[in-house]
Amino acid sequence: MDLHFLDKITLENFLLCTPYEKRENRDLKTIDPNYLTEERFYNNLYTQPQTNETKINIDNIRRELSEMDFDEVEINTILRNRDSIESFKTSLESDNAEPLFVRGYSGTGKTTFIRTILYKLNLEKPNCHSIVFNMQDSLHHVYLFNGKWENEKFDKTVYIMVSLLMKYIGLLINKKRHETDIEYKNRLHIIHSKYTNLFVENVDPDIDKIFDVLLEFIEGQCDYYKGSKDSFCNRMYKTIVSFVPTSFVSDDNNIISSSINKLLKLICIWLLCKSENDNDKYFILLDNIEHYVNNEVIYDEDITLIVQIVRNFIADMNGYLEQSDIIYSSRFKVIFAIRDTTHKWIQYTEEQNIDFLTTHIDVSPFFSMDDVINKRCEFFKDSDIIKHNNRVIQMINSITSDIGLNHQISSMYNHNKRRMMICLIKAISIVERNYVN
User: Fold this and answer.
1) Of the chain's two ends, which shows fewer C-beta atoms within 10 Å, N or C?
2) pLDDT value of position 54
3) Conformational region of residue 288, where left means phi above 0, alpha means psi within -120 to 50, and beta covers everything else
4) Exposed (0-12), middle (13-18) or buried (19+): which is 42, by Cβ within 10 Å?
5) pLDDT 10s digits, 94-107
6) Is residue 249 helix, strand or coil?
7) β-pairing, 100-104 with 360-362?
């Protein structure tokens, strides 16, 4: 049986496609790189989380689950209402400095959930901006201005984070594509002027070196790039790389923490200085943070270390920005998309435990597979991407639309929709083949 559509996309990839997936072939980019935009996905394919408002008859579902011997705790988990989502959204926009955690087992929709919320938030409030650091973007080499920084431990999460931060800093500071020299200098002049006004009496020596190089370039004391060691690009590269000392690869947590702290601080200060409005707010998402952690691993030191580094950074920035009359929590919010298993090993203070219900959300039971399938079939029914009479899809849909059976299978795979879908497709395909033969 042919499970391909036009020999371009597999059934598995079709049923799991989102604009946020980095895994090769798991989206529609094999057909058209610009086809599955965030706007099109949100308007046509996004499955709303299951809440009391999205299920027609909660009493019938509760009775049916009770008859299948699910206990009250399991039933309440399945019927998680919208209060948790609304509380999380309130925390997202609040001035609470604590980082937020989107939790769930692997493949449960953490990325889709938070990225869609941030997308919708930006539509409603254009002053809200999202910055995504995706750990799937593994970087062995970081090309920064005219230099190349080599990450000697690019397969470890904390070192990948350093690479991603450095790459983003390059994108922030460097000349944009099609930007003329005059436009670039004017942009840097505005940023430098704002930096001087905001931090004239609150100078961080390391950050100040960046802006010193900036000023010399603006005033024409150095060229942008002519291959010389005194060029703007070369000096900027050396200054940024100095945030990460050569002893960085020694596995000294203090060195790692200091490097990440400095890079995050530079990013935040630059965003404040480039911001056109004083009410701009930036949501920093650390996504796929366990990309280098095996699915079955329940504890990873790198993850807990990064969470602690970020918490320390927030505490430091709170005090630093207060001296410039800036409230950190009104301008920045850090969000972790993290597996439920590794999250359980993170330590919390008594105060953080009090805020737990509003700063954490478990998305594991939110998305229904039958809704996911139906959305895609409905949207693509008039295209040549999907065959209307595909028996495998019909059989998968009949299984996932059965509430009790769907929950049992979902629980077997820890709500991992990727694994669940792959196994269903394989199992049904075998049955189909045997039936045909």
Assistant:
1) C
2) 43
3) left
4) middle
5) 888 889 999 887 78
6) helix
7) parallel
